[in-house]
TrEMBL record:
It comes from the Archaea. This is Dihydroflavonol-4-reductase. InterPro entries: Epimerase_deHydtase, NAD(P)-bd_dom_sf, NAD(P)-dependent_oxidoreduct. Gene3D superfamilies: NAD(P)-binding Rossmann-like Domain (3.40.50.720). It comes from Halostagnicola kamekurae. GO terms for molecular function: aldehyde dehydrogenase (NAD+) activity. The lineage of its organism: Archaea, Methanobacteriati, Methanobacteriota, Stenosarchaea group, Halobacteria. Residues 6-226 form the NAD-dependent epimerase/dehydratase domain. Pfam families: Epimerase. GO terms for cellular component: cytoplasm.
Amino acid sequence: MTKTAAVTGATGFLGTHLCERLLADGWTVRGLARPTSDRGGLADSLEWHVGDLFDDRTLRSLVDGTDAVFHLAGIGLWSADAATVERVNAGGTRRLLEACRHADVDPGRLVFTSTAGTRRPSEDGGVADETDVVPPVGAYQSSKAEAEELVDDYASAGGEAVTVHPTSIFGPGDETFTTQLLAMATDPAMAVYLPGGLSIVGVSDVVDGVVAAFERGENGAHYILGGENLTLEQAISRIAHCTGGHRAPLEVPAAAIHAAGPVVETVGAVSGIRVFPFDREMARLATKRLYYTSERARDELGYDYDPLEEHVPEAMAWYRSS
Ligand SMILES: NC(=O)c1ccc[n+]([C@@H]2O[C@H](COP(=O)([O-])OP(=O)(O)OC[C@H]3O[C@@H](n4cnc5c(N)ncnc54)[C@H](OP(=O)(O)O)[C@@H]3O)[C@@H](O)[C@H]2O)c1
């Protein structure tokens, strides 16, 4: 018999790739879509449940009797204010877990997509694992940390749930991080890049990790799904090398970014206008090397990732055509 999955965030970047994979593996897929969501190429392939994370009846019908619930819906500070981020990421997770508890037929395992950002290395250039839980910086991280606790409670109270923590996801369809990275590597007009480093993971590797967490993860466990740890300069150079593009020549000094934090914070406090989604703490973080290990996922889930170069051609083809 075919298995049925419920996917929140099915219309987003990661959700679209996950749904394509589940369909290719023979699953029946139910997707949560808002009335305004762009269903893209999946419009005719999914069973759509129309509503949002605050529509309890829609959520219950979405998860009812499914074999798996993949909770990907979330929002970041680039597209919403702090209160909305908190409401959607933490409040929305609470509502979805309530729907799982009160469905007519209990759903199977829930896989929650948090972020690696709730963990951090203890020193610049060190490598963080799942145990390196740190005080959240900004509304996005704190809302994800709160949602993680709710999911942990659900798992320890008789539910089945696993949390995955992707690092920075790179791949076709991502109009934020991937687009910026490709522009910095290929567009001579983008003459600067930021200091600091990060773990970059291809979207197909994250999808593999999410599915493996459903199949083989330990109940209540957390798994970092990362990729290569690179400075931004290394990432941009390697993409430029693959594409024959222009490497951005100038690094913005860390001091300039640190200085921007308080300015933005003050403008926000005085005017009430959200100028830019970061304050002084976020500015400091933006210049650090935030590196991660996915060893636990490798050992327990069989997770693996490809080097950045493997993911560039598909992302580049999408970038050029969009
Ligand atoms: N991309 C990354 O690098 C990265 C890294 C770590 C973790 N994550 C996490 O992975 C998940 C997916 O990320 P993504 O990059 O695919 O994000 P995305 O492209 O922005 O997609 C977000 C999805 O959430 C949905 N959504 C937002 N608010 C909602 C609401 N109130 N009710 C129902 N659905 C709502 C969106 O629906 P609409 O289509 O209607 O907008 C969309 O389907 C998120 O939870 C994110 O925090 C992402």
